């Protein structure tokens, strides 16, 4: 069986004695095993990265920018190759995987202007003869820990910004689909990122804990489920590290009575079932306001049979399988339990039959869902859309603001005042007005609130550069020796 290695100091190497299985989710068969790095391996990688970082931070910004332009070029030229690697281990349709790469590429684009983003601040004559400069310096070695659902995009967000800012990175991707990042690391090397600046450590909890405890790891970016995000946040913070830990989600889409219902149904179907519901920005709850619920449910239900679900490599398929057999059982369990909780299963995805033997399930639509039901409260992370019926806009806002998750949300309306109120009232990090999946473009930043993000900086954009740099403020004056005197009071300007 093919063994998936790590990538350290410019080379693929097997780290660790233990192995984890990697599946082709479309066939349901194991395709490889990934070697899982030990604590001692991680220590060595971090040490080497710390050495490499010393030289990288001295590399001129013009040279660093040129490297990023090359990364951009190569990634754009070869995006389909990368997309196919993603599909082989994740299962999503190749076209969807190309979309993932492009959303990662946006952040590479932003980083290509790194000189602009790293420019400091300067104020002349803050006091007589005194100037102040604020400069941004890299942190050193930073760690990333990423989830299975975007094996290229999320790592690209982290590594691009961290490396552009002058850090070295040790990134541990999901052990379920680790190959995409190895390919990316080799592409970064080809573009001119020096050996040791980008390292990929494959592993599980042992490798993660080693990164969280390593004294030379200065910052940790995590993306994954909420319980693990909380754990990462507290353990890394306890060890004195800068940390941002992105967690799970339960994203609501409000459909107002004045919305165009066909447009809203198209959006709900796309956002709920795309990538088999395995997106942290997927819509998992449609909130039908007023008397439109029956029509909205009917319009969503009539679109479901047209979804093309199957092997992501086959032309025409839009949605692939779930990631693992466990995920299939878990998602099926929520649909199975919904009736018993008092909800109505309008479309049962478990009934859909597939020629392939992999971890496939059809799209499900569950109506009359309420808080307190597991199908509402839990993040299902599969193609299950719940419909909650409410009487008013205020009730919709109250429902969303009471959720522990606050990653993304959307409102569908033709009324500007309602949209403006929603933007103002809603306690969620990313908001779409007639946009069902409001993932911001690379020049802005990405991040939720509440249990969807522990930490205070978002991913990428200037927030990313803030996370991956520390500010140093230099006060300067050049007085004449004759002006010198002892001043024991606290310095005043
Ligand atoms: P996960 O939390 O199971 O795993 C994420 C990473 O944490 C992996 O690299 C994994 O190896 C590691 N990990 C898992 N258990 C660990 C443990 N006990 N100790 C230390 N490390 C551990 O998440 P997943 O199933 O890979 O991804 C899906 C989840 O990620 C969903 O909850 C989804 O909402 C979330 N997600 C969030 C965002 C966001 O931006 N908020 C983006 C993508 C995915």
Task: Describe the protein.
By secondary structure, this protein is α/β, with parallel strands linked by helices. 38% of the residues lie in helices and 23% in strands. The protein contains 16 helices and 23 strands. The chain has helices at residues 39-56, 61-77, 79-90, 94-111, 114-118, 153-164, 179-191, 205-213, 226-238, 261-273, 293-303, 325-338, 374-377, 393-401, 416-425, 461-467, and strands at residues 3-4, 6-8, 11-13, 18-24, 29-36, 121-127, 130-138, 141-145, 168-172, 198-200, 217-223, 242-246, 251-255, 283-289, 344-347, 364-367, 384-390, 405-406, 408-412, 430-433, 449-450, 453-454, 469-477. The strands form 6 sheets. The protein has a 7-stranded mixed β-sheet, sandwiched between helices. The protein has a 6-stranded mixed β-sheet with strand order 10-9-8-11-12-22, sandwiched between helices. Helix 15 links the parallel strand 19 and strand 20 (430-433). Helix 1 (39-56) crosses helix 8 (205-213), helix 2 (61-77) runs antiparallel to helix 4 (94-111) and helix 2 (61-77) packs across helix 7 (179-191). The protein is globular. The structure holds nicotinamide-adenine-dinucleotide. The site of nicotinamide-adenine-dinucleotide (NAD) has 27 residues, from helix 8.
């Amino acid at each position: 069986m093919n063994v998936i290695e790590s990538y350290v100091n410019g080379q693929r190497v097997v780290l660790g004695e233990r192995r984890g299985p990697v599946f082709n989710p479309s066939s349901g068969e194991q395709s490889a095993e990934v070697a899982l790095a030990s604590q001692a391996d991680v220590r060595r990688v971090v040490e080497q990265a710390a050495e490499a970082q010393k030289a990288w931070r001295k590399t001129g910004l013009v040279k660093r920018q040129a490297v990023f332009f090359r990364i951009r070029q190569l990634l754009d030229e070869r995006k389909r190759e990368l997309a196919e690697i993603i599909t082989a281990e994740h299962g999503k349709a190749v076209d969807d995987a190309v979309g993932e790469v492009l959303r990662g590429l946006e952040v590479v684009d932003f980083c290509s202007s790194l000189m602009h983003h790293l420019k400091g601040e300067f104020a002349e004559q803050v006091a007589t003869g005194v100037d102040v400069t604020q400069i941004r310096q890299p942190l050193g070695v930073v760690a990333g820990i990423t989830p299975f659902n975007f094996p290229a995009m999320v790592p690209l967000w982290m590594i691009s910004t961290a490396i552009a800012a002058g850090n070295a990175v040790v990134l541990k991707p999901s052990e379920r689909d680790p190959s995409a990042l190895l390919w990316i690391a080799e592409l970064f090397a080809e573009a001119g990122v020096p050996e040791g600046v980008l390292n990929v450590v494959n592993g599980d909890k042992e490798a993660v804990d080693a990164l969280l405890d390593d004294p030379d790891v200065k910052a940790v970016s995590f993306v994954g489920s909420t319980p693990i995000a909380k754990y990462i946040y507290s353990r890394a913070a306890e060890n004195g590290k800068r940390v941002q830990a992105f967690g799970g989600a339960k994203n609501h889409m409000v459909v107002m009575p004045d919305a165009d219902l066909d447009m809203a149904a198209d959006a709900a179907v796309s956002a709920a079932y795309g990538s088999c519901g395995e997106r942290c920005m997927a819509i998992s709850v449609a909130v039908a306001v007023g008397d439109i619920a029956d029509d909205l449910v009917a319009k969503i239900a009539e679109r479901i049979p047209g979804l093309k679900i199957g092997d992501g490599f086959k032309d025409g398929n839009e949605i692939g399988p779930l990631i693992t057999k466990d995920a299939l059982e878990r998602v099926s369990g929520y649909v199975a339990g919904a009736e018993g909780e008092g909800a109505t299963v309008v479309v049962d995805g478990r009934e859909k039959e597939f020629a392939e033997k992999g971890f496939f399930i059809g799209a499900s639509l569950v109506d009359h869902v309420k808080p307190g039901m597991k199908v509402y409260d839990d993040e299902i992370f599969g193609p299950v859309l719940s419909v909650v019926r409410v009487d008013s806009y205020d009730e919709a806002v109250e429902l969303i603001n009471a959720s522990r998750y606050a990653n993304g949300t959307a409102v569908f309306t033709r009324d500007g005042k309602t949209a403006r109120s929603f933007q103002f009232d809603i306690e969620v990090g990313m908001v779409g007005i007639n946009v069902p999946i409001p993932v911001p473009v690379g020049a802005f930043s990405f991040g939720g609130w509440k249990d969807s993000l522990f930490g205070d900086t978002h991913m990428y954009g200037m927030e990313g550069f803030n996370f991956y740099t520390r500010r140093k403020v230099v006060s300067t004056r050049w007085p004449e020796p004759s002006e010198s005197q002892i001043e024991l009071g606290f310095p005043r300007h």
